[in-house]
Amino acid sequence: MMNKTVIGLEIHAQLITETKAFCSCRADVFDLEPNTAICPVCTGQPGTLPVLNKRVVEFAIMAGLAMNCTINKRSVFDRKNYFYPDLPKGYQITQYFFPIAENGFLYLENGDEKRKIGIRRIHIEEDAGKMIHQGTDSITGSSGSYVDLNRCGVPLIEIVTEPDLRSPAEARIFMELLRDTVRALGVCSGDMEKGALRCDANISMVDDSGRSSNRVEVKNINSFKFVEKALEFEQERISRILSSGGDVAKETRSWSFSSKETFSMRSKEEENDYRYFPEPDLPELIVSEDLIERIAGNLPELPWEKIERFMKQYSLPRYDATVLSSDGEIASYFEEVAQTTRRPKESSNWIMGEVMRLMNEKELTVEEVRVSPEHFKELFGLIDEGKISNKIAKEIFPFIVEGRKSPLEIVKEKGLEQIDDDKVIEDALRKAMTDNPSAVEQFRDGKEGVLGYFVGAVMKATRGKANPSKVNEIARRMLKG
Predict the structure, then answer these.
(1) Reduced to 3 states, what is the DSSP secondary structure of residue 204?
(2) DSSP class of 355
(3) Which helix (H) or strand (E) is 175 found in, with range?
(4) DSSP letter string over 191-203?
(5) Distance between CA atoms of 271 and 465, rounded to whole angstroms?
(6) What value, to the nearest 5°, has the Cα angle with vertex 431 and ends 429 and 436?
(7) Which site in 64, 134, 221, 423 is 20 to 30 Å from 309, CA atoms measured?
């Protein structure tokens, strides 16, 4: 039996504003001591009134335009009522009935397939606080819990897709596309690990007879990899239940990072459980056509536009252009290097390879790994002139990053200039041939694969400094006798 998978995402993006959505408290609270960025407004003290942050509205409009949404000139704030220790007001200010943007889409590319994924709505809301549980990821089984209210009132946009995604892999790819989009706009850092981008995934399955399972919501997913893994787990679980003729419970489940499984949290809430009603302390939000046009005219280059430009301007493969375009700082750095060296493909290879490897391994920023474009030009020149091999170039790269010295200075300091001296290479080859006469005979009997043994022996003897092409040339001549 083949079951069709139906997935929709609800994505919360934390906006990079200086202050919170409805008060003047600091909005960047990730590393702060608990309960140090709070005030009577964001903690819901009696008699306080919210005041809307204009920048939040502008960022929401930017996101809506980038995702091809209709921007509603009139939208309304509502109260979403529920009770939990990290929500001191007992309600969350959001937009339910009339959101700021709706009916948009993004194109998702998966291999050779390109499909339009609908964006049902984008709305503004405030974040709740955070529960910190002792000894476990959840309140169940915890020996105690603390409440940090710093996040209360931090501005979010919630992006709700249509149920257009057809596989866990598509959900991950879409999340990565969305991350690249909000980063390019400068409205959100996109860091799932820091909670700046959070995803709730809804999944159901339809069997061959057209029977659809109930929809299951999966929460607590904090990485792109886990979006895919959590949905794969649910896909298999729901498929098993359908195949056995059972009913899939309509519930909210949580992803466990430790067991790599989902587990039931509660039955799925219905919309009326939240008792939405218009927020009485905020007027209707009216945005002018002039504001929308001004924001539209100042949108930055978006990821898919940058990909196409990189392919055309620098003749890069789509894969390179996609990787480089996923981060604005990386993309800008690549352009600086490519324009200085006039070798875009090699620049791309080095940035995607050595630069990004160091960034990932040592958790460094682009600025911290930044090698000047002029040093890249010099490095490529040393390779071209045969003074160093590609292998040596990669070995010295971390020293260029750390010391900010030129490649030539480091090569000279470490005595790494490539050996082109025929006599040195011939002596090393002669010793290798004396040490292994049977390999010499094998080569002369037509087994040319053993040439690699002699090349390797010379490279080892010269600590990788011998010119590989010259070693190959001399080895063939000497082995043939």
Answers:
(1) strand
(2) I
(3) helix 168-185
(4) -TTTTSEEEEEEE
(5) 69
(6) 95
(7) 64
pLDDT score recorded for residue 62? 98
Average pLDDT, the chain: 91
- Backbone dihedral angles phi then psi of residue 362, each to the nearest 5 degrees: -105, 5
> For the chain, what is the largest distance between any 2 Cα atoms, rounded to a whole number of angstroms?
97
Q: What is the DSSP letter of 275?
A: -
Please name which of 141, 124, 142, 121 lies closest in space to residue 132, comparing C-alpha atoms. 142
Judge contact between 154 and 128, C-beta under 8 A.
Answer: no
Q: Which amino acid does the sequence have at 415?
A: G
Q: Beta 277-278 vs 285-286: how paired, if at all?
A: unpaired
Q: Among residues 10, 471, 34, which one has the least CA distance to residue 269?
A: 10
Give the model's pLDDT for residue 15: 98
Closest CA to 21 of 47, 41, 48: 41
111 — pLDDT class (breaks 50, 70, 90): confident
Q: Which of 90-94, 138-142, 391-395 has the lowest mean pLDDT?
A: 138-142
8 A C-beta contact, residue 340 and residue 376: yes
| Block residue for tokens 């061959």 | 208
Q: Identify whether the C-beta of residue 164 lies closer than 8 Å to the C-beta of residue 188.
A: no
**Residue 306 DSSP code:** H
Please state, in angstroms and rounded to a whole number, the distance separating the CA atoms of residues 120 and 9.
Answer: 10
Q: What is the pTM of this model?
A: 0.84
Helix axes 390-403, 373-384, angle to 10 degrees: 160
285 and 97 in contact (C-beta within 8 Å)? Answer: no
